[in-house]
């Protein structure tokens, strides 16, 4: 997360704001999850193309204040680590990822928490970002 949200103010967008009139949520994803045509998940794999070989991923967590090179490096390092170590990404989320029924892990809620988790991590570590 320190690569995707590098400033203390970056974490202000990681809140689930519900709009009852149109039953939608605003802001960035707040849980560790993935899904297809689902904008509430952290990693989205749209199923809008007929040919599965033409699919892409959307990593919806990084903010505009993140360094694009660091973001790409972190995503590639994480993907490589997951593939090499056969890490199961969990079940695909079809519904609203903000809902508590899924019992998903939350993304860090502050830069301090993200920095602590970064230092404990296995894939990428840095003394300071």
List the topology elements.
Elements: E1 17-19, E2 24-26, E3 34-35, E4 43-44, E5 58-59, H1 68-84, H2 111-120
Parallel strand pairs: 3-4
Antiparallel strand pairs: 1-2, 4-5
Strand order within the widest sheet?
A: 3-4-5
Distance between the termini: 11 Å
Percent helix, as a range, is 10-25%
DSSP strand content: 5-15%
- Series of H and E elements: EEEEEHH
Shape: globular
Say how many strands there are.
5
Count of DSSP helices? 2
> Which structural class do the helices and strands define?
alpha+beta
Largest sheet: 3 strands, mixed
Mean pLDDT: 88
Q: Nearest-angstrom radius of gyration?
A: 15 Å
Q: Which stretches of 5+ consecutive residues score pLDDT under 50?
A: none
Can you walk through the features of this model?
- The protein has 129 residues and is of the alpha+beta class.
- The protein contains two helices and five strands, in the order βββββαα.
- A hairpin with a 4-residue loop joins β1 and β2 (24-26).
- The longest helix is centred in the middle third of the chain and has 17 residues, at 68-84.
- 24% of the residues are buried.
Brief write-up:
By secondary structure, the protein is an alpha+beta fold. The chain contains 2 helices and 5 strands.
Please give a handful of descriptors for the protein shown.
three-stranded mixed sheet, single chain, 129 residues, 21% helix, alpha+beta, two-stranded antiparallel ribbon, 2 helices
């Amino acid at each position: 997360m320190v690569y995707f949200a590098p400033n203390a103010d970056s974490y202000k967008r990681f809140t689930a704001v519900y709009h009852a009139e149109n039953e939608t949520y605003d802001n960035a994803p707040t849980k560790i999850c993935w899904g297809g045509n689902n904008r509430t998940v952290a990693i989205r794999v749209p199923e809008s193309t007929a040919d599965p070989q033409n699919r892409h991923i959307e990593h919806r967590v990084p903010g505009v204040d993140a360094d694009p090179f660091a973001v790409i490096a972190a995503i590639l390092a994480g993907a490589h680590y997951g593939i090499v170590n056969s890490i199961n990404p969990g079940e695909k989320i079809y519904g609203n990822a903000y809902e508590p029924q899924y019992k998903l892990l939350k993304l860090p809620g502050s830069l301090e928490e993200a920095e602590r988790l970064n230092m404990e991590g296995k894939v990428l570590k840095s003394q300071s970002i």
